[in-house]
């Protein structure tokens, strides 16, 4: 068991899983504030056909090509959801359901075909569904880690602009910030964050890594900056812990362990969070009640 | 009946039952809740299997129904604690689904269940799993399950047709009439769960989402009348099951994947040609008003 932890391959995978978790935590804070948590779920499911088409076209499991394929089909899916929602009477959540399930169905069709024609090179493609960090080689891990760091840097260096665009797009326009550009760039970054994670976390559960850490962070703070930092920390811990646990067993899927790790953090935050946690809420309520009752007595 | 006959019958029943329940899902704006339930049902099935050690019949149905209700209840509880609805859904279903997958993948659950089977179903095995039904003879278990569930869903919808209509379109008015809106909500969610689990064997947990949402959304573009929407959605569901099967045989690929894909084809057709809210109709109307 210690052999696995000491192998340099695993250490690379571990470090990049932490980076991925941090990037997803930051990105998730943005998508959560825009109430687009489930959008990331739709995009990650929709990435599957892109992965398969890239594999069938190149005939190889080169992660860079697969990521580009996934990114393209994720972007198309995001545009389709917007398009269906805006041009018909169909609501956004139904549009997401349609695109998510139809793209995923197409992905499963292509996966089955790839399993028949791939001549052995296709083994491991199944891992894209639930994530298989253990099957990653060092170069895959490096791609994932470097792209995650780039996403984080883009967010950090333009933090002020992101903040204004998120909370007050009109004000941002007056300040001369190209809001349209930032909106499209946001979608692009979201898709990048999702697709770099699909090999480690899997298309089905990637959305959880964006949603859960940022939701947890809200229970600890009211400040946006601290929320970003906390969410990144929570995401990083979940990514690392999940990868670690799944490395102990033969062929264990990574995604579910990452999600359960982040859910534990969420439950702790929900109950004990220092700003909005249930325990604090109850304390405030009882304080208020006792104040009120003593006040009532005085009035009598 | 022949092998292909049973498969087509199973697929059509999935399309019909999901198509019917899907209309209410779309109109109540709960499409993503269906996505959530179709995932969490897996946990219910795994736990039911751990207790009863069999993958058949009522135990599975009850487990799935409880999982569906639990999902609904937790999501509502989170919402009452101030969580946004999509965040609540996202947290709950990914967590419960992950626990289900972990139980399957590790020896903890000791479940002889294939994750891929659970996700994608294996409709080609349906005709092999027969049980004896009095008067009819040997019938695949999945067909019996689907017929029962479809009949149940139809009955509940027809019995309370007016109530469904009012609670769906104007919950506040429904409450003022004394209709128990919350009870109806949970009843509806139970129906979604049992439909999901009945379809589970045939098309798998995730493809159910395609069957639930897409035919109903397509029907939504064709008409404003509720009863017609039910009829159209059920026919679209059935049509895409059969179309999906044909595509799968033609390309020699996953049947459930093709079925989900076929719902997309029917939606695309509706998007362009639907007589009421299709693209062409809408553009024509615009031109006439100008």
TrEMBL record, chain A:
Tell me where the transmembrane regions lie. 12-31, 37-56, 63-84, 96-114, 141-159, 185-212, 224-248, 254-274
Chief location of this protein? membrane
One Gene Ontology term, aspect cellular component: ATP-binding cassette (ABC) transporter complex
Q: Which residues form the signal peptide?
A: none
* Gene3D superfamilies documented for this protein: ABC transporter involved in vitamin B12 uptake, BtuC (1.10.3470.10)
| Functional description taken from the UniProt entry | This protein is probably a component of a manganese permease, a binding protein-dependent, ATP-driven transport system.
Q: How does it sit in the membrane?
A: Multi-pass membrane protein
Question: What is the recorded name of this protein?
Answer: Manganese transport system membrane protein MntC
Any GO BP annotation: response to zinc ion
**Protein's cellular compartments:** Cell membrane
Tell me which SUPFAM superfamilies the record gives: ABC transporter involved in vitamin B12 uptake, BtuC
Pfam families, per the entry: ABC-3 (PF00950)
Q: From what organism does this protein derive?
A: Jeotgalibacillus soli
The protein's matches in InterPro entries, at most eight in alphabetical order, are given as: ABC_BtuC-like (IPR037294), ABC_TroCD (IPR001626)
Q: Could you say which protein family the record assigns here? A: Belongs to the ABC-3 integral membrane protein family.
Q: Which UniProt keywords apply?
A: Cell membrane, Membrane, Transmembrane, Transmembrane helix, Transport
UniProtKB/TrEMBL annotation, chain B:
Matching SUPFAM superfamilies: ABC transporter involved in vitamin B12 uptake, BtuC (SSF81345)
Gene3D superfamilies in the cross-refs: ABC transporter involved in vitamin B12 uptake, BtuC
The question of whether Nucleotide-binding is a record keyword is answered with no
What GO cellular component is one of the record's annotations?
ATP-binding cassette (ABC) transporter complex
Q: Which Pfam families does this one have?
A: ABC-3
Any GO BP annotation: response to zinc ion
State the family it belongs to: Belongs to the ABC-3 integral membrane protein family.
PANTHER family linked to this entry: ABC-TRANSPORTER METAL-BINDING PROTEIN, METAL TRANSPORT SYSTEM MEMBRANE PROTEIN CT_070-RELATED
Q: Kindly provide the name given to this protein in its UniProt entry.
A: Iron ABC transporter
List the source organism. Answer: Jeotgalibacillus soli
